[in-house]
Amino acid sequence: MKFILLTLFSFSLCFSAFAQKKPLLKDFMGINGHYHFKPELYKENCRLVRNYHSMNWDVKKPGDKPTFPICANKVNWDTVYGKWIKHGFEIDLCAMFSGFGEGNKKYKELWKGKEKWAYKYGYEMAKHFGPTHGNGFVTSIEIGNEPGGDFDETLYKKIYLNMAKGIRAADPKLKIITCTAHARKADDYSKDLNETFSSSEFKPLYDVINLHTYASKPKKKGQSPWDRSFPEDPNIEYLKVVDEAIAWRNKHTPGKEVWITEFGWDACTPDVMKNRTGWFKKLNWKGQTDLQQAQYLVRSFFVFAERDIERAYLYFFNDDNKPSTHAASGLTRNFKPKKSYWAVSHLYKTLGDFRFSKIIKKSADSYVYEFVHANAKKKVWICWVPNEPKSDKAYSVTVPFSVAKVERMPTTSSKGAKVKYSVKGKAVNLPISGSPVYIFSK
Question: What pTM was estimated for this model as a whole?
Answer without folding.
Answer: 0.94
